[in-house]
Amino acid sequence: MTIYDLIIKNGAIVTADSIVQGDIAIKDGKIKEVSVGKPLDATADQEINADGLHILPGLIDTHVHFNEPGRTEWEGLETGSRSLAAGGVTTFFDMPLNSTPPTINKANLALKSSAADEKSIVNPRFWGGLVPENIGDLKDLHENGVIGFKAFMSPSGIADFNNVDDETIYKGMKEIASLGSLLAVHAESTVITDQLAQEKQRQGKTTARDFVESRPIISEIEAVRRVISYAEATGCKLHIVHASSRKVVRVINDAKQRGVDVTVETCPHYLSLTVKDLAEQGAIAKCAPPLRDQEEVEDLWTAVSNGEINVIASDHSPAPASMKTIKDNYFEGWGGISGAQSTLNILLTEGHYKRNLPLEKIVELTATNPAKLFGLSTKGEIAVDYDADLALVDLNESFKLKKEDLFYRHQHSPYVGMTFKGKVKTTIVGGQVVFDNGQPIEK
Ligand SMILES: [Zn+2]
After folding, report:
1. Fewer Cβ neighbours under 10 Å: the N or C end of the chain?
2. What is the per-residue pLDDT for 443?
3. Alpha carbons 328 and 253: distance in angstroms, whole number
4. How far apart (Å, rounded) are the C-alpha atoms in residues 46 and 222?
């Protein structure tokens, strides 16, 4: 009889294609057997009874800002990775900015990578930055394993991470195409957002609604169209992050149909929060692009259901509470939403339960698609020889999210106070339990 390291018994195994009742056997960090319809004829050092639970491929969060090294007072890999484990996330891609130094050359990448090796309890991967100063560093970064490159078309808000001018986008995309890598873009038009913001503030118009109106959907559309034209000219793979509206997604899908290699991400906050939440919660719910109105939220869910979205990621962008205060000027107060722990909760509660989104679709958008898109050939599936990265979820358990439940360095999130249906019970990374019974397991 075969002896495995771990057997997970009798769970409902969810993949992008199906849900089946079965057992999973794990050895040396890999899934070695998936038995459906009959019990495994094997033993293991450790057994988990998953009766009544659903087993999902661990989520791959392709968009977080963990701020380490150099700004761990904002978050850090220790707190960040623990919050992911609590949310069923087993792999993250850390953005190149908000850490100091930013990930714009090989030496800076090495600093971040060694910090992650030491502190993260889930699998880390890293984005490299594309800034006007570092086109000569892209090859080095690529050869040292970055997942792709990230650029800002509007100011990033971070002094050591400059946004790209059109010349940098064009040259950068040519270089990235030659490397066979991909460029992810924060697409908002500086011309539009700067002018509108100045005009609003000159007129003393500084409410939540005014802030949102200063970053209209057209500013996303304009920037997306422009960067798509560079993708067409250079053949560079393009990934648009945090699209806030289906109107933006439509522009991307038109390009896809013309054969442009472009994909799109949206985030849980655009699927669950509106301008009203921003007005009520202040900077806790402030982000860029900003939250929209309820009809945009509903349209975006239609896009999700129709397969118009490739990836859902958190864009977890934390900051200390002291930076998150707005008195009456919404142009002040740091933007960025803390949400990495709640991605699956939002998708289950707002998607699966409220809008009949199939579980398989949630797996596709949070695990299978990200793995395929970014070339993680052993992740995103529950199948033989894939990595044993799994989330065990009780779909029937409801809970109200409390501040104290959050593992972030700063326990604030716009989702605090929401009642979620579906709770992560156990998270497994490479065959090791990293979260169980409400607590992360220390390394
Ligand atoms: Zn971001």
Report:
1. N
2. 67
3. 38
4. 54
Q: How many CB atoms lie within 10 A of CB 258?
A: 10
Q: What is the pLDDT of residue 442?
A: 78
Query: Would you call the peptide bond into 320 cis, given omega within 30 degrees of 0 as the criterion?
Result: no
Radius of gyration from C-alpha coordinates of the chain? 21
Helix (H, G, I), strand (E, B) or coil at 215: coil
Residues of the chain with pLDDT under 50: none
Residue 128 and residue 103 in contact, taking contact as beta carbons nearer than 8 Å: yes
Strand partners, 59: 89
pTM: 0.97
Q: What is the pLDDT of residue 326?
A: 83
CA 72 to chain centroid, in Å, comes to 19
Element (H, E) at 6: strand 2-14
Closest CA to 286 of 208, 187, 207: 208
Cβ atoms 77, 66 nearer than 8 A? yes
Calculate how far, in angstroms, residue 284's C-alpha sits from the geometric centre of ligand 1.
Answer: 15
What are the Cα distances from residue 199, in Å, to 205, 217, 259, 295?
A: 9, 17, 39, 27
Cα(63) to centroid(ligand 1), Å: 6
CA of 288 to the centre of ligand 1 (A): 9
Kindly report the length of the chain: 443
Residue 364 CA to residue 359 CA, distance in Å, equals 9
User: Cβ atoms within 10 A of the Cβ of 374, count?
Assistant: 20
Kindly report whether the peptide bond that precedes residue 69 is cis, defined as omega within 30 degrees of 0: yes
Of 281, 235, 237, 287, the C-alpha closest to 266 is 287
Centre of ligand 1 to C-alpha 129, Å, is 12
DSSP 278-313: HHHHGGGG--SSPP--HHHHHHHHHHHHTT---EE-
Contact 140, 105 (CB under 8 A): yes
Tally helices (H) and strands (E) across the chain: 14, 18
Residue 323: half-sphere exposure toward Cβ, Cα within 13 Å: 14
Residue 295 C-alpha to ligand 1 middle, in angstroms? 24
Distance 217 CA to ligand 1 centre (A): 17
Is residue 47 within a helix (H) or strand (E), and if so which, with residue range? strand 42-49
